[in-house]
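sry for the spam today, last one i promise. C-alpha cells for design, 91 residues
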C-alpha cells in the first residue's frame, strides 16, 4: 500500500490510535523526533505545528513502536495496522 499524505489517511491513522489504550494529543513542543510517547500514562504527543506529512510519518512511527492489541481493532483498522507493522507501506 502506498502512503498518501492526505487528511483522510491521517484520520485513518488517528482512528487506529483511538482504538488502542493510548491517547493521542497534538501539542506544541520541542521534541527531537517531532513526537513524544509517555508509556507509563499511555499518551502520545505530536507537535501540532508539523505539516501534514510530518504528522502522518510520526503517527506511523508511533503505531509501529507501541504495543497494540489487534483483537480490539475493527476489521479495516486491523488490515491497515498489519500493513503498517509489516512494513508494507511505500512512499
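last one done:
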Amino acid at each position: 500500500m502506498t502512503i498518501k499524505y492526505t487528511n483522510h489517511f491521517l484520520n485513518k491513522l488517528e482512528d487506529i490510535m483511538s482504538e488502542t489504550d493510548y491517547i493521542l494529543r497534538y501539542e506544541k513542543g520541542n521534541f527531537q523526533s517531532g513526537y513524544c510517547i509517555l508509556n507509563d500514562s499511555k499518551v502520545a504527543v505530536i507537535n501540532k505545528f508539523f505539516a501534514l506529512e510530518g504528522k502522518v510519518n510520526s503517527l506511523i512511527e508511533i503505531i509501529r513502536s507501541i504495543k497494540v492489541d489487534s483483537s480490539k481493532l475493527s476489521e479495516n483498522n486491523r488490515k491497515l495496522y498489519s500493513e503498517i507493522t509489516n512494513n508494507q507501506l511505500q512512499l
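The beta strands are 23-27, 35-38, 43-47. ok im logging off now
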